[in-house]
Amino acid sequence: MNGNVTDAPRLFLVFWKAWRAMEEVDRRSISKLGIGCFSDFVVLEALLHKGAMPVKDLGRKAGLTSGSITTAVQRLEKQGWIRREKNPADSRFSLISLTPEGTGLISDAFAEHARRLEQAFSPLEKAERAEFVRLLKKVGRTAEAMSL
User: Fold this and answer.
1) Is residue 2's pLDDT more than 60?
2) Distance between CA 122 and CA 108 in Å, rounded?
3) Is 1 exposed, middle or buried (0-12, 13-18, 19+ CB in 10 A)?
4) Sign of the CA dihedral 94, 96, 97, 99?
5) Cβ–Cβ < 8 Å for 48, 106
6) Does any domain span residue 104?
7) How far is CA 51 from CA 29, 42, 68, in A?
8) What torsion, rounded to 10 degrees, do the Cα atoms 140, 141, 142, 145 define?
9) 61-64: long-range contacts at Cβ-Cβ below 8 A with a sequence spacing of 24 or more?
10) Cβ count within 10 A of residue 92
């Protein structure tokens, strides 16, 4: 590696360390919101930003296995934060949606979480953020193509 900052192993190490630090910021932020666990937050957040959807789609959006999404939906339904409703497009699958209480909870929680993430990204100026996104997408697309 010779300490060259442009060598792939060095790039990966810097990326990995930054990712771990950001992941810790993310998890600590979410743990302070009073929602419960990380999976509950991501389910509520997906419903807030994507709207009502079948359990299978919700699990995919939240990055949860079928068993984990089922458990999360049951837990959140018990809390009164989500509900199942009839799917007008396909009666075989119900839609999961936020209740008014759930909407208020996740709206406030997400705003607070976004403020904490904003603080973590505050060293980057607007143009640097755009470049950061462009570069991460470029590397991500290449890595995805390699894994096919």
Assistant:
1) no
2) 21
3) exposed
4) positive
5) yes
6) yes
7) 23, 13, 20
8) 120
9) 64/39
10) 6
DSSP 8-state symbol, 92 = T
pLDDT tens, residue by residue, 29-56: 999 998 988 999 999 999 999 999 999 9
Check residue 148 and give its pLDDT.
Answer: 77
**Quick one: tokens of 25?**
């910021």
Helices (H), the chain: 8-31, 38-50, 55-62, 66-79, 100-120, 126-146
Q: In the chain, how many domains are there?
A: 1
Contacts of 54 (CB under 8 A, 6+ apart): 87, 90, 93, 94, 95, 96
| Other beta carbons within 10 Å of 99 | 15
CATH number of the domain encompassing residue 135: 1.10.10.10
For residue 136, tell me if it sits in a domain: yes
Under a CB-based contact definition with an 8 Å cutoff, are residues 38 and 62 in contact? Answer: no
Q: Does any domain span residue 3? A: no
Q: pLDDT tens-digit profile of 108-142? A: 999 999 999 999 999 999 999 999 999 999 999 99
- Confirm if 35 and 20 have CB atoms less than 8 A apart: no
